[in-house]
Amino acid sequence: MRTLAILLLAITPLFVFSQGSTNSEINWISLKEAKGLAKKHNQKILIFFYKKNCPYCEQMKKETLRNPNVIDIINRNFFAVRLDSRTKDTIYYNNIAYSNQQPIEHGYTWRHDFYFEVAAYTRNGTSQITTPTIVLFNNKFQKIGAMHGNHPKELLLRKIQQYIK
Questions:
Q1: What is the pLDDT of residues 86-109, one digit of tens each?
Q2: Selecting from 3.40.30.10, 3.40.190.10, 3.30.420.100, 3.50.50.60, what CATH number does the domain 23-161 have?
Q3: pLDDT per position as a tens digit, 27-52
Q4: Cβ contacts of residue 82 below 8 Å, gap of 6+?
Q5: Where are the domains positioned within the chain?
Q6: Which residues pair with 78 in a beta bridge?
Q7: Confidence (pTM)
């Protein structure tokens, strides 16, 4: 009996503290997984485009995307995907195959065509593109919005609220 009591005391904290605990990071998944799950669960997709050696991307990863409120709202309302804007992967969007068409030896310094398709915007009559960028899609993988540039947590939370059910 005493052994049982000690065992119960030892494992009780595992149950008590695991319930209701919040996740300390965003649940990043692959784009393929997100597309399938979004359709199945009628939920939106959030894609965070970044590039290597981008100080604004690193700042957003370390500050905004580590904020508990941001983590919570993204994990509860979106399937989150993190994509290098210079990836060499082929991505299908609207039945079109998008890729980074530059040769492999300098393809990692050139933007991916899917990134350009969904993240580009017009300013003063010219097409612009920037990293980081967050692009939002509905459950049918149709673009519904974009947030360009580094966003502090307060601004991101305010903007992302408009896309929640």
A1: 998 999 999 999 998 777 666 567
A2: 3.40.30.10
A3: 999 999 999 999 999 999 999 999 99
A4: 28, 47, 48, 50
A5: 23-161
A6: 44
A7: 0.83
